[in-house]
Amino acid sequence: MPKQRNAGILVINCGSSSLKFSLFDSDSLLQFWSGSVSPIGEGKGTLEIKTNNHKILESRSGNFKDLAIAVNEVITWLKDKKQDYPIVAIGHRLVQGGPKHREPEIINPKLLKTLDEFVYLAPNHLPEEIQTIKTFQSAFPDVPEVACFDTAFHKNMPPHAKYYPLPAKYEDKGLIKYGFHGLSYQYILQELMAKESAAIKQNIIIAHLGNGASMAAVKNGISVDTTMGISPIGGLVMGTRSGDLDPGALLFILKQDKLTANQLDDLLSKDSGLKAIAGKSDIRELLKAEADNPKAAAALTVFCYSARKFIGALAAAMGGLDLLIFTGGIGENSTIIRSRICEGLEFIGIEISKTRNKANEPIISKNKSRVSIRVTPTNEELMIARLTVDLLNHKINNSYGNQNNE
Predict the structure, then answer these.
(1) Residues 122, 130: Cα–Cα separation, whole Å
(2) Do 115 and 203 share a domain, yes or no?
(3) Do residues 129 and 14 make contact, with C-beta atoms less than 8 angstroms apart?
(4) CB 35 within 8 A of CB 21
């Protein structure tokens, strides 16, 4: 890739209520700065950008009533700073690309048309992600942009884990188990393999626990199962998402309340999970309230029970477990939740050390624990930057090779 002073790879990560963005050096992939706009859609929010040594480059409040407003604010700031931080490529996290689009791709009109056709697979995420891409294309028309799909990590799941026991016509329409949080899982696995190449032969469960939460079973370096399915609603009980439900429960809701598909989607995505049980979804708030609030205590019990149950199921799916990795906002920071999840799993070799866990050490299992338990910070933005650089360098090298062969 052509190199300029401070030439950067801009990474865009759209969330349900936030926008995260970072700039990485295009050669070293060291981060220049990172920023966020949060919350979005809840009235007053904050745009903050700071360097790795915590120097504040920008911090101001605003009414970010939707993602489009946040995106335009970020673009305005970037253009004001373009002399300091010239952008040579942009990497976007996309939640979904359909069954045939998993690996990173350079964004072009054909891909955008395909993404539009698969909006029905991720109606809560894809429309805004596509619009964000188009806005950045308009703002930076000469900068190549790359789509990095959150489903890529799970593309090689075996058929018995990937396909639903439903008529084939639904599979033809894209109804399969995709899995999500793939960029996080890919980063965690890359970091692990860089330090311990022998881990490629281990049975690993990675628990990405945040407001959205999932787990992946990794065997011989490949995702063989994961808790989320066609959407990020399934699997574990989450902050505002229901997790797995009996299909009969959905039929009951539809019949009793006569909901539309969109209303049901909103119920399961935005008004279920911990929020439905306790009235709030933030684990930190629930932990503070549990002593005096039975509903908060109940929500935490359900969350940990759900996580514990899926660890057992995924370990069974792999025929054993060697390594359990906690990551994500809750997984990395909540010693109490990690401890409660691990309690009762001694029968599969999980024994957590109270002292190591409380100290937030990288390895928190007891010495005698058959399963190693670890805490590893994830970095989806760095993973996107890596994938973006790899793809663009591959394209440049191929182009150069083709010219030499002419």
Answers:
(1) 11
(2) no
(3) yes
(4) yes
- Looking at the structure, do residues 15 and 110 belong to the same domain, yes or no? yes
Which of 123, 149, 175 lies at the terminal end of a domain, its last residue? 149
Backbone angles phi, psi at 344, to 5 degrees: 95, 0
Instruction: Dump the DSSP string for 180-232.
Output: --HHHHHHHHHHHHHH-GGGGGSEEEEEEESSSEEEEEEETTEEEEES--SST
Evaluate the omega torsion of the peptide bond into residue 294 and state whether it is cis, within 30 degrees of 0: no
* Residues belonging to the active site: 150
| Total domains, the chain | 2
Domain that holds residue 143: 8-149
Please report, for residues 12, 111, 163, 212, the alpha-carbon distance to residue 240 in angstroms, rounded to integers and kept in the order given. 23, 31, 26, 8
Tokens standing for residue 113: 């048309």
Tell me which amino acid residue 154 is: H
Clarify whether residues 271 and 213 are in a common domain. Answer: yes
The dihedral of CA 339, 324, 302, 310: what is its sign? negative
pLDDT per residue, tens digit, the chain (406 aa), is 445 556 899 999 998 789 999 999 999 999 999 999 999 988 789 999 999 899 999 999 999 999 999 999 999 999 999 888 899 999 999 999 999 999 999 999 999 999 999 999 899 899 999 999 999 999 999 999 999 999 999 999 999 999 999 999 999 999 999 999 999 999 999 999 999 999 999 999 999 999 999 999 999 999 999 999 999 999 999 999 999 999 999 999 999 999 999 999 999 999 999 999 999 999 999 999 999 999 999 999 999 999 999 999 999 999 999 999 999 999 999 999 999 999 999 999 999 999 999 999 999 999 999 999 999 999 999 999 999 999 999 876 665 445 444 4
Q: CB–CB of 245/270 below 8 Å?
A: no
